[in-house]
Amino acid sequence: MGAPGPRRLLLVSNSTLRGGGYLGHCQQHVRSFLGQKVKRVLFIPYALHDRDAYAKTAREKFESLGYGLDSIHDSPDPVEAVRKSEAIFIGGGNTFRLLKALYDNSLLQEIRKRVLEDGIPYMGSSAGTNVATFSINTTNDMPIVYPPSLQALGLVPFNINPHYLDPDVNSTHMGETRAERILQYHEEPNTPPVLGLREGAMLLVEGDKATLQGVTGARLFLRGEKPTEHEPGTDFSFLLTDGNSQKP
């Protein structure tokens, strides 16, 4: 084995787009991201209650793309499964349930080490994207269980809001918009940027380079600044620096 490569992340907003199957909208991105060196993917299904059914869905998709898939919930030793993994995929569901299970199984440090030090590819979708970031404070999910902390894997030093939804000017709904909720987060001190990833969008991180991919674009929220709109292809590398609260 040569020296480990830089961090490699594919952070997808959602696993299913209307009219397509599971991971259908991003399967070419998945294939080019994992490449030919990876033979098997370790799947972490903790975000959904029925882990067997979830693993079956994921396995069928990854096998159709040419990869074997092992689900961590089938392993007697989840930590060892992470240590031996060639690539990790964490699927969507409830972010609080997912993060609590990662803490309960003592997996955060192990996943961090494999991804940030050993350079294995990490793919997340929805909740799996949330837990890859600084914290899960900007998830859309209900807190159905209580993880010991909202701090997550921290594979990137900012937050993501998956399934980002633009305000509907014709809606009669009187609840807060997604943008208003993110603004409330930024009213708290020392809160990092939030990237609102619309459905159909994903962020590719390779080392110190971050690029917006997919078809729908994203909205970037920086504390104390007006949100900005960004098209696919945007270079978001500046978000990966520690002092990322200001654009260069």
TrEMBL record:
InterPro entries: Class_I_gatase-like, Peptidase_S51
Known EC number: 3.4.13.21
Record region (Disordered): 226-248
Subcellular location, record wording: Cytoplasm
Superkingdom to which the source organism belongs: Eukaryota
Gene Ontology cellular component terms for the protein in this record: cytoplasm
Gene Ontology BP, a term: proteolysis
GO molecular function, one term: dipeptidase activity
Keywords: Cytoplasm, Dipeptidase, Hydrolase, Protease, Serine protease
The reaction(s) this protein catalyses: Dipeptidase E catalyzes the hydrolysis of dipeptides Asp-|-Xaa. It does not act on peptides with N-terminal Glu, Asn or Gln, nor does it cleave isoaspartyl peptides
Pfam families (alphabetical): Peptidase_S51
Xref: PANTHER family: ALPHA-ASPARTYL DIPEPTIDASE, PROTEASE S51 ALPHA-ASPARTYL DIPEPTIDASE
NCBIfam families named in the record: PRK05282.1
Free-text function comment from the UniProt entry: Hydrolyzes dipeptides containing N-terminal aspartate residues.
Protein family: Belongs to the peptidase S51 family.
Protein name: dipeptidase E
Protein's organism: Chelydra serpentina (Snapping turtle)
